[in-house]
Amino acid sequence: MAYSGYIESDRRNLFGRLVYQAVCLVKVVWLGFWLAFATVLVAVPIIIAGYFSSTGNFAFNLARVWAWIILKAAGVKLIVTGKEKIDKKVTYIIISNHQSHFDGPVVAAGLGIQFRWVAKQELLKIPVFGNALYACGNIFIDRKDREKSIRMIKEGMNRLSPGTGVMFFAEGTRSEDGKIGAFKKGGFAAAIETGYQILPVAINGSNRVLPKGSIVFSSNPIEVRVGDPIETSNYSQDTIEKLAEKTRDIIISMQRNIGA
User: Fold this and answer.
1) Does the CA dihedral 214-215-219-220 come out positive or negative?
2) Which stretches of the chain drop beneath a pLDDT of 70?
3) What is the pLDDT of residue 12?
4) Which of 13, 21, 57, 254 has its CA 20 to 30 A from that of 82?
5) Shortest CA distance to 63 belongs to which of 24, 26, 115?
6) Residues 6+ apart with CB under 8 A from 2
7) Sheet (strand 197-204) strand order
């Protein structure tokens, strides 16, 4: 009887694992379908809009439609707090933590302002998607060459229309465990150089939706918290570390567990 019980237990465990794997496969296929659909739906209009618009604003608005489709397809509830702190007439250097591939869609959909990304130049090689990113007026950098990257950021910002911010994931890569890592200095150098305010943003819960290294999403809520803008006029390149530390401390203070 005991031996038969072990066999039955193993069968139940095996069945449970098979069901779990099947659910994971369905999720991957489901999100993959909507990702492809949304990209095909908006990419060509974005590219066309990019050629006929000097600002890239309309193209960016189309990209926000793409973001909303992805979030809805994944069943993600987006929560935005502190949005009233944003002045839409002001150009910000937006600094955020980075937990997941979902961070891009949530800030695009949630902040409600025009901004452009600072992204690695390798993304330009992705068919259609890379062209769409370029058409929106995003800024691409060579992460292997710091001086060249800073120059590319400055040149890219000079092309932006007034009131259009620039978005930096200051850690440079996604966090393995949701904890905020060290901040790279590119965004802060740009803020000091231009005198633009820094808008600190904390993303909470996206690592539960899609952890780094995983392709299976979970339908958990994601919160975007906006902090008080930080004046940069009193900082110089010599005090850039203090500015980075202050911004990082503010973003850490806005972190909280969500979707547990």
Assistant:
1) positive
2) 1-12, 14-15, 258-260
3) 62
4) 57
5) 115
6) none
7) 78-81, 222-226, 197-204, 92-96, 165-169, 115-120, 139-141
The b-or-e profile of 202-231 (16+ CB within 10 A means b, else e) is bbbbbbbbbbeeeeebeebbbbbbbbebbe
Q: Is 226 helix (H, G, I), strand (E, B) or coil?
A: strand
Integer distance in angstroms from the first to the last C-alpha of the chain?
40
* Residue 14, burial from CB neighbour count under 10 angstroms (0-12, 13-18, 19+): exposed
The reported pLDDT for the residue numbered 3 is 47
User: Going by CATH, does the domain composed of 2-253 fall within 3.40.1130?
Assistant: yes
Q: Could you report the per-residue pLDDT of 60-75, keeping only the tens digit for each?
A: 899 899 999 999 999 9
Phi, psi of 229 (to 5 degrees): -55, 145
Domain definitions of the chain by residue range? 2-253
Nearest to 232 by CA among 117, 84, 91: 91
- Predicted confidence at residue 238, as pLDDT, reads 93
Average predicted confidence (pLDDT) for the chain: 86
From the list 236, 76, 248, 85, the residue with the least C-alpha distance to 169 is 248
For the entire predicted model, the pTM comes to: 0.85
CA–CA gap between residue 188 and residue 168 (Å, rounded): 9
Q: What number of residues does the chain have?
A: 260
Q: Which residues of 118-144 are buried (b: 16+ CB within 10 A; e: fewer)?
A: bbeeeeeeeeebbbbbbbbbbbbbeee
